Amino acid sequence: MELTYLLLAISMLFALIATYLAIIEKNLVKAVIFSALQSISFTLALYLLKAPDIVLVYLPITVGVYPAAILFLIRKTEEVEEL
Amino acid sequence: MRKDIIVAVCLAIVIVVVSYIVTLGGGLGPLFNDVRPLATIYLSTALNTYNITFTAMSPEAVTAIVWDYRGLDTLFETAVFYLAIIGSVAVYRGIDEKLRASEGFGLSKIVKVVTKLLIPMNIAIAASIALHGHLTPGGGFQAGAAMAVIPILLIVVFSRYFLLDIRLSKGLALALRSIGLVGIALTVFIPVVIGLIRGLNAYIMQNQAKINAPVSLPAFIGDSLISGSLILYNVSEFLAVSFGFAILFILLSIEEGLVKDQMRGEDVEH
User: Fold this and answer.
1) What is the pLDDT of residues A4-13, one digit of tens each?
2) Measuring CA to CA, which of A14, A73, A82, B258 is 20 to 30 A from A30?
3) Which one of B11, B19, B139 has the shortest CB-CB distance to A20?
4) How far, in whole angstroms, is CA B13 from its chain's centroid?
5) Distance (Å, rounded) from C-alpha B261 to C-alpha B268?
6) Is B23 helix (H, G, I), strand (E, B) or coil?
7) Distance from the A17 Cα atom to the nearest Cα atom in chain B, whole angstroms
8) Does B215 touch chain A (CB under 8 A)?
9) ipTM here
10) B60-110 pLDDT, tens digit each
11) Cα B144 to Cα B184: distance, rounded to the nearest angstrom
């Protein structure tokens, strides 16, 4: 039980770091990769929270489909965010 | 840089405090120890061969809820997804995806070989998630999402012309997706048709017999549990979702120059 809480805390902290890096990153391709890392740690958290149905849909959508769609959009527009 | 550290520390404190309150502090009730009353109802009725009043004949409570207890909700979710794909097809109307702007090279040979090994495994996983969706965690949408990764991999690793070479065009994907949607629509009306033929009361999307509607779809084939309509919904949704995403990525991967030329109506070199 304690190990579950510990892993949950570690994965959520990792997700927080990845989210923060995705937000401040100016290169959008790198930002998408950080976002996918955040999704992987969310997947671990969902598995620990005993939601395998959500894991099965969350993993391919947020690590496969969503970064691919965003990367196609970045390719059609601009790679670096300008303020 | 110092501002970044302050922001990061503040966020870390917030997440630690919130997660302490939610889990060990008991702010939202026990997360792991107890089964809540609502969950008890579904767990005791999802697969119950003794009391068949409310059963869905599926050991997978999530699939039982998604396609039986709140089936209409999922039906309209599928309709939303259908409209989103139709919208993207409408945006790309009149664009010929079979035109080639250049030769597709794709990534290196190592990546191609690894992808070739991965794709049969991916298909097997997606098929097992769909066909076992009423027994183990998973279901139609999950399997469709797992399958949707394959066209993305093929487009990125082999280039989009590879999809044209194996004849997975937008038309074929639309047709397979339509087969899935028609399968869902037919499964919705199967109990009503059976009821009309046998002169019994039946509801749309009914799976197992209810008190005043004694029509039920077969829960077993031989000794295998197929949970009546749930397996039909799962397989149809699998087709609809996987090929819906395939259409999306076939359209997104068309070169921007080709799309713009065709939208202007200029002659494109074949």
Assistant:
1) 888 888 898 8
2) B258
3) B11
4) 37
5) 7
6) coil
7) 8
8) no
9) 0.87
10) 889 999 998 998 999 999 999 999 999 999 998 888 888 887 777 888 999
11) 14
